[in-house]
Amino acid sequence: MIIKQDIQAAFFDVDGTLLSFEKHIVPNSTQDSLAELHRKGIKIIIATGRSAMNLNEISMLPYDGIIGLNGTSCVLRDGTTVSHHAIPHEVFIRFMELAKRYDVAVSVEGNAGVFVNQVTARVEEMSRMIAQPLPQIRDLTQIFIPGETKCF
């Protein structure tokens, strides 16, 4: 027996998938394929570690929503928030204590912007790979104010 299932949605990563690490553009063939999916009524969802505010390179694509910040933020194309799951303050503080103890660079994106506790060779490499400027260096524990600043 053959079971026919209609595809209702397709999910795509950004960095290294829709955007090449070399050219940082979406190839025309990919744009055409996504447009064809959309014309067929298939929802296109972007799934990425980036935030919805940090996706200018794909603005020409016919996507319907974004699962951003590794799943902590889900928004529709028109900006409507479907869900947001911020990191609890006490978890963030504990995480930063461990990062300091083990000298780990941490980059966070919150409602106040993108910040990093230190710039390392790996941070510089990642910024180059995704063609984004280096985040501002800050004491991350000082920018996360409970009730005011959310960290994702």
TrEMBL record:
<dbReference type="GO" id="GO:0005829">
    <property type="term" value="C:cytosol"/>
</dbReference>
<keyword id="KW-0378">Hydrolase</keyword>
<dbReference type="Pfam" id="PF08282">
    <property type="entry name" value="Hydrolase_3"/>
</dbReference>
<dbReference type="InterPro" id="IPR036412">
    <property type="entry name" value="HAD-like_sf"/>
</dbReference>
<dbReference type="GO" id="GO:0000287">
    <property type="term" value="F:magnesium ion binding"/>
</dbReference>
<protein>
    <submittedName>
        <fullName>HAD hydrolase family protein</fullName>
    </submittedName>
</protein>
<dbReference type="GO" id="GO:0016791">
    <property type="term" value="F:phosphatase activity"/>
</dbReference>
<dbReference type="InterPro" id="IPR023214">
    <property type="entry name" value="HAD_sf"/>
</dbReference>
